[in-house]
Write a structure and sequence with these properties.
The chain is of the alpha/beta class. It contains 13 helices and nine strands. Helix 1 runs parallel beside helix 2, helix 8 runs parallel beside helix 9 and helix 9 runs antiparallel to helix 10. The longest helix has 24 residues.
């Protein structure tokens, strides 16, 4: 089995205090045919020095240093460099179970799949794990098409369409093992939401996915990471990503759920931006909002509550704020 090489790509930005744990969890894998690609994305702490030291100790490490371009750009560079049969991603402040790639290579080979997905957990600074895996029923596990897998973007929520979107199992890149041929050719810039855009691009191809129950990846809370930054103009990239999702997928369930999510997030971002005096970076985002809403109405895919709320927002932003937000 170990004749198949796994290329693990780790973008790094000011992660010096976490690198021994994250790099160590890769080098200590029970699956040893690994190529670890470290991309130092313009760090100004000791990250570069630490990476250089590791690269001198282990011939499986490829180290690259560049000016700061962002995580998405770094991942794309890693994909271009990768020579493995499979490609995986690890964030530099997280870590993996030492059996992760042995288990995932075995699963992807056994099920003749293009993509393997494992369970993960959210780790607080005190080591507490916060995710209850029992919310996932048996239908979630096993072999399925990537289109069906993408449906889980919007499942496991009992609140209004779009507002409960938070399924890291689908959108994240770090709990997955990809056949290199399904990911080669994808590239993106370093903006928020690049994980989702990459996985949308892959899942829309209707490939074979195998989902396993093993909890093998630990996403660690780091208040300095990009995902924990306060609201900024960069958040609007998520709306652009959702618009691309609607274009990529023909599946009506995914399209309609994505439209509802876009509408909800646009309103959420609008009022957050107002409080911080941040202007809408592209007026087309509001035009797309109205198109998304109109499509949901025409296709009768929204609740009466959703319909009234959207109309109120379009009619009067001030009235919406007073009636809906109680502000």
């Amino acid at each position: 089995m170990e004749n198949k090489k796994v290329s693990v790509i780790m973008p790094i930005y000011n992660s010096a205090k976490f690198l021994d744990r994250s790099i160590g969890s890769i080098l200590q894998q029970t699956y040893t045919n690994i190529e670890l690609i470290l991309i130092n994305d313009g760090s100004i702490d000791e990250s570069g020095r630490i990476c250089e030291e590791y690269s001198k100790k282990d011939s499986r490490i490829i180290y690259k240093s560049q000016n700061n371009h962002g995580q998405g750009y770094s991942r794309s560079l890693g994909v271009k460099i990768a020579t493995g049969d499979y490609i995986a991603f690890v964030d530099s402040d997280d870590y993996c179970d030492t059996n992760m790639y042995e288990i995932m290579v075995d699963a992807i080979e056994k099920d003749n799949a293009d993509l393997c997905v494992c369970q993960w957990n959210y780790e607080l600074p005190d080591g507490t794990h916060t995710i209850d895996k029992h919310i996932y029923d048996d239908s979630f596990y096993g072999v399925m098409s990537s289109i069906n897998f993408a449906h889980y973007l919007y499942k496991y929520t009992n609140i209004e369409a779009g507002t409960g979107y938070a399924n890291g199992l689908v959108v994240s890149s770090w709990n997955k093992l990809y056949k290199s041929e399904i990911i080669k050719g994808f590239s993106c810039e370093g903006y928020l939401g690049e994980d989702e855009e990459m996985n949308d691009w892959i899942n829309s191809k209707d490939i074979v996915v195998t989902i396993i129950r093993d909890e093998l990846y630990y996403y660690c809370q780091n208040l300095e990471s990009i995902s924990n930054k306060p609201f900024s103009e960069k958040k609007y990239n998520i709306l652009s990503m959702l618009n691309k999702r609607c274009s990529l997928f023909e599946d009506s369930y995914i399209k309609n759920k994505t439209r509802a999510l876009y509408c909800n997030l646009f309103i959420e971002f609008y009022y957050k931006a107002k409080k911080l005096n941040i202007n809408l970076p592209d007026s087309n985002l509001y035009t797309i909002f109205k198109i998304m809403f109109r499509n949901l109405v025409v296709k009768r895919q929204c609740t009466l509550k959703f319909f009234i709320r959207m109309l109120l927002f379009i009619y009067s932003k001030k009235l919406y704020k007073r009636v809906i937000l109680n502000e």
